[in-house]
Structures are given as structure tokens and as C-alpha cells.
Automatic annotation (TrEMBL):
Pfam families: F-box, LRR_At1g61320_AtMIF1. Signal peptide: none annotated. Residues 26-62 form the F-box domain. Residues 1-27 are annotated as: Disordered. This is F-box domain-containing protein.
Amino acid sequence: MEEAAAAAVGKRGRLGHHHGAADPPSFRMEDLPTEVQPVIISPLPLKEAVRTSIVSRSWRMLWTFHSDLCFDGPTPNDLDSDTDDEFAGQDTTKMNRAKFIETVNSVIQQHSGIGINKFSVRWGMHKEYSDHLDRWIGFAASSKANIIDFNLKKTYQPFEFHHFPLEALDSQGCSFVKSLFLASVSTKPNSVISGFTILRRLVLEFVKILGDFPGLLAKCSGLEDLEIIACYGVDNLIVPHKLDKLQHLLIAGMDTQMVEFHATDLAHFEYKGRVIPIVLHGCSKLEKATMKFNGTKALAHAFTAVPSILPVKTLHLQAFISKYAQLQKLPTRQQGMFLHLRHMICQLIVNSNDPNGDNGVLQLANCLDVAPRLETLHLHMLCAISSSFSSGEVAGMRRHDHLKTVFMSGFRCYKAQIELACCILRNASVLEQLIIEPRITDKVWAGDCSKWNTDLGEILPGVCEWAHVTSERFGKVITVVGASLNTTEASLAQQGAGSLQHHH
């Protein structure tokens, strides 16, 4: 007992020495300079910053200097869902919207309005809430937020959209907005607006544009990223002014007659829509293009309709191929060649009652002829129906001396797929391996693709057998993704010996 008591006294002595008066004082937030305290709390989400401010009286007002005010509501799917109890009924939705509006108003009333970096509102808002929306836009403008994001969702009809006054962000010609995202609103650019000289990113999605849009872009001399998605009101997207700092341009779902831009620094161009004249002036630095044309000749149009994309190193194509699509010969003259193209991704949806009778996929063989220095090809195919296995004759294609890797997903041994694969195997002199995957993946196609993959058990044996035979025929490695260990990476024919090795 005496030994235990002595040990306890010794332990208390050591603790007392450890926490003695000579120890430095503990850190306290209020000891920091006033201007530094909000910086410490800013990385927290707004809700957590408010909760943290309750810890101490001296912290109580710290959240009012938070730099990012982001208010996110449920998605339109949540609002319409019958399975989500919180948003199942219309009255419940109105109640939650009222709470959302009350929260936003309370925050902006108490916030200092100083040092705002981002102001974001994302929830479907009816035009009847215009007073609140105008108040929030006014706060974002008066606080000079660098990033402004107003996404009112696609919950309501276009004629009910709230008008977003761009002139409210002008601030008498003084620039402060660096990034502007608008969705499901209407707006009317005019020549009076001049305060967008430091704007770096502009995204317009489902926006009704009523005014002089090219004139607005002329004021955005520092613009680097421009995305225009499903907007309307612009008949011709012709911008005569030079946007010398523009690096990324996305145009999708637009009902325009022509696209014309002057962008000497453009590195990535994306277009999704119908075939229209597209002119990109001075785009010598263009490295990547993403093209999706509507119509049965979409694949060929991607290689011929936009001469400005010839310098690209990476090309991403999306196309629909309908029944009896006609093969098209592409120009093979020097000025029509993709001489710098190294990597290509191609997504094809084949809409045909009989994929074995459809030759649209073989258009790709002609397309490869204009890319003589291609190194990697990723081809993803979705045929809307199933069919029996078939074999076909090898289609013609020029020799490729740089193509090393080819990956084909959705490969079900349809006739056109086999012909294209054999085409590549025969003419790609340095090909290291052909990878085929019968499965259609969610990573490639939007939505649930599981319904297309229910018959993999029946398809895999035939695909593996084809890979085995074809590997011997051409002396190339053919890997079947998703096969069992004894058939995966089916074959490698020995050069000159003709024997087959299995890789596990």
C-alpha cells in the first residue's frame, strides 16, 4: 500500500511538472489578429462554420466573414420523386423551399458582405420568388463576389424564367466577377455593360438570351473557358472580336445556323449538335476536339465538317449509326489529313434491326485512313439488339505504322465489328495488343447499361473462341476483358512458329 501511495504521489508530481507555470500558454483563436481569424474558419462549409462559431462567444461572429456562401437545394429528380419522403408532396416541397428562402435571407442579412469569394444558389425557383432572387443577386453584386453561380434548375418552363440582370454585376465598369454560371434564367446583354474584363469562366445552360451576346463576349477579353449549352435566342453564334485567351469552348444543343470564333489560344473545342458551318480562326494551338453531330452521316462529318480541328492530337467522337448507313470515302489528300492525331476515342450507338447487316461501323476504317500517325484507339459500341455470331471479309484500310493499342468495348462478334477488328489487325504493323470487352460500361454511356449486359454468359465463350482463332491468324495479342482465367488474354501467336500461348 505504501509503495502504491508513493507511486501515485510521484505520478502527480510528474504531471504537475508537465503542466507547470513554466509551460507556454495554450493556443486561442482570439489571440490571432482579427483579419486572420476568418481565414482559419473559411475552409469549413458554411453550415459547419456556423456550428463552430457557437463554441465560444468570441467566435460567434466569425462565420459572418465566411468567404463561400453556397446554398444547394434538392435536384429536380428529388422534387418529383415519389420515393423520397422529404420531398414527396407538393406542400412539403413548398415548405422546404420556404425554409430554404428563409435560410438564405437570414445569412445574407447577418453576413458582413466582406471578402466574398463565391456566392451560389442552386434550387428550382419559380418566377413568383423574384423579390428574393433579386435581393440575392444584389447581395452577390454589392459584396463583389468573384464566383457567382445561379442555377435555378430545369423545373419550370422557359417563359417563367427569372431575368438575371447582368448590368447588376457591372459595378460602374469595375470588374470583380471571375467566374459566372447561369442556368434556367433569361438574360439580356447590352452595349452598356463593360465590367467583365477579368471574367475567366462563363457557363450558360438553358438560358434565354435576348440581347447582343457577341457584344457581351467582346467585353470579356480575359475569357478562358466558355460553355454554351441548350441556350436559345442566338441565331448565329458569330463573334468577330478576338478572344485571344480562350482555351476551352463548348457549344452543345444550340439551334444556331453558324459558329465562328477567333481564338488563337484555343486548346480544346467541343461541339454537340446538328451539322452547321463551324469556323475557328487562328487555332494553331488546338490539341483536343470533342465532336458529336446529329444524323446518320455523323461519323464522316466529324472528320470533314470542321477543317479547323485538323491540328488536334486527341479526338473524341460520338455518333449514331442508323440502319443501312452508307460507307463514305473521305479525302486522303495532304490538306485533309489529321497528321498530328495520336489518340482517338469513338463512341458509337448502332440503331439497326440487324447489326450483322449494318455496315456503318466500317466507316471508321475509312476515318482511320486520314489519321496515319494514330497511336491509340478506344472504340465503344452499343448495338440496341442482340444477334448471332458471324464472320465477314476484311475491309480495305491503309497501313498504319504507329498504331500500338486498340480497345473495343461492346464487342459482340457482329459482322461489322469482326471486319473492322481484322482490318486493324492486318494493317497495324506495330500493334502490341487488341483488347476487346463484350460488356457495355456505365462509364461510357449515360444511364443504366445493365440491361445490355444480361447475356454476357452466352456471349463470352464465342468471343473468346474468336479471339483464340484470330490471334493465331494474325500473330497478335488479343485480350478478352471479363473472361475466366483460362481464357482471359486469349492468345499470342509465336512469330514464324504459329503456336499459341495463353496468358493468365
